Amino acid sequence: MARFSLIRWFGDLTIRYKLRLAIFGTSALALLIAASAIVPFQWVTARDSLQHDLKTLAEVMAANSTAAISFGDRRAAAEILAALRVRPNVLQACLYARESDALELMASYPPVATASLCSAQLSASNALTAKHVRGSAPVLFDRENLGELIIVESNAALVKALQADLLTMGGVLVVCLLVAFFLSTLLQRLIAMPLIELADTAARISNSNDYSLRAPKYWHDEVGALIDTFNTMLGQVESAERDLREVNSNLEVQIQERSRTNATLQQTLGQLQETQAQLVQTEKMASLGGLVAGIAHEINTPVGVCVTAASTLSSRSDELKQAFENNALTASGLKRFIEVAGQSTDIIMSNLHRAASLIQSFKQVAVDQSNADHRRFNVADYINEILLSLRPKLKNTHIDVQVDCDPELSIDSFPGVFAQILTNLVMNSVVHAFEPDSTGRIQITVRPTATGLSLVYADDGSGIRPEVLPKVFDPFFTTRRGMGGSGLGLHIVYNLITQQLGGSIHAVSTPGEGTEFQIEIKSIEHAQPESYSRVS
């Protein structure tokens, strides 16, 4: 969080302060890094030099102490150590003589000092601590170790030298920072001044909208190129503003013309919508008229059979009456009449039942299509009634219609709308999906849902091309123009499902493999009239 605050603070600074801080900060950081590397290096170098000098001194004095240790001359040993008075930083020096396996102090410097500094850790011949430096050397004679010489010196001189180096380095750092500050001040003026002038020019243009102003150019660098581009852009804006004023002078006339055009378009649109509504209603009536014609033709067959059977029965009745009146009635003749009468009666009754069934189905479907009321109906039975009313259209084809629906499934909805939807889908398949005399199958699958029912209508016909599929619900779109297609069948289906039933319809198709319509229908208690997006 602090890092982002620092970045935001730096980003809000003016360019001159950014440049000054960048140059000054970079120089200061570079000097600090250099100083932090040089000072430890000098400390290590001076320390190693002091240790080496002290060790060399101990070796020289150890070589001079061979005779004193060999003859046990303590006085001579003390005089040798007394030569260390020329080194004021020496804290203590001790000369030990080896007696058997032990070391015995033979002489020390200064003479009155104890051997505490020398005797501690005699095995560490050379060591550097926080306060002093130890240097030692063995006293040898013909490779025989006669003793040990230890010199302990204060590191005060080393510390003073380091302090002097730090002071010198600090002075150099301050001077360099001052030079960097003045250089950054000078450079930021040279770099920031054109940018500041550019910003001032942009602010004056923004306040006055005077695009004739130009930013002054100082240098032929990247900022100079930016100023040239800015001035060129100002010229283009100035030219565009002149053109805009010319365009605005004619805009009012164009607006008036467009207003008149919009009024005409609105009137035309209203006429088109009215025409479309009339065409949709005409399509519905044509569908109902086709249903009437088909039912009439279908009823004509059983009625004709009934007429033929009744005619035969009437003829035989006349023959029976004549034989009875002429006293020519025989048992065998009466028996043949009874057989003909029974057969004729069976034929008449079965065909009348068939005609009555057709009339009842047609009556229910036709009433529902002309009635906008809703009611609860059995879905499976109603689908069968719709298909029965469509049998005149289907009997001359080789299309097998299969229904998969729970016999107990019912819904509170608009049966007339439901019938028109299913009728239009079946007729769409008959007209578009199958060629004449071709075999095919239509599968209607109905399943209950939480809000109503799901109906999947699928055929295995020719399918719909991908470029045509998104348009199948558009009004007046048809691939059979001039061949009996009006382009309103699926459009009516879409509007009935999405607007009156509050549901949705999706079309999925693969050319050569058939088409599937996935329909969701809501029951009255869940339906809310709304529009759904088409998904193909």
What does this protein look like?
By secondary structure, this protein is an alpha+beta fold. The chain has twelve helices and twelve strands. The chain has helices at 2-11, 15-64, 66-70, 74-82, 116-119, 156-208, 222-325, 331-370, 379-389, 391-394, 415-433, 489-500, and strands at residues 90-99, 102-109, 127-128, 132-141, 144-154, 375-378, 398-404, 410-413, 439-448, 452-459, 504-510, 514-522. The strands form three sheets. It has a five-stranded antiparallel sheet. A hairpin with a 3-residue loop joins β3 and β4. It is elongated and about 190 Å long. Residues 120-125 and 529-536 have low confidence and may be disordered.
Residue stretches low in confidence (pLDDT < 50, at least 5 long) are 120-125, 529-536
How much of the residues is beta strand, in percent? 15-25%
Q: Helix- and strand-based class?
A: alpha+beta
Q: Mean pLDDT across all residues, rounded?
A: 78
What is the rounded Rg? 58 Å
Number of helices: 12
Span between N and C termini?
Answer: 50 Å
Largest sheet: 5 strands, antiparallel
- Please bin the fraction of helical residues: 55-70%
Q: Find the count of extended strands (DSSP E, 2+ residues).
A: 12
Q: Provide the succession of SSEs.
A: HHHHEEHEEEHHHEHHEEHEEHEE
Apparent shape: elongated
Strand order, main sheet: write it out: 2-1-5-4-3
Topology:
Elements: H1 2-11, H2 15-64, H3 66-70, H4 74-82, E1 90-99, E2 102-109, H5 116-119, E3 127-128, E4 132-141, E5 144-154, H6 156-208, H7 222-325, H8 331-370, E6 375-378, H9 379-389, H10 391-394, E7 398-404, E8 410-413, H11 415-433, E9 439-448, E10 452-459, H12 489-500, E11 504-510, E12 514-522
Parallel strand pairs: 7-9
Antiparallel strand pairs: 1-2, 1-5, 3-4, 4-5, 6-8, 9-10, 10-12, 11-12
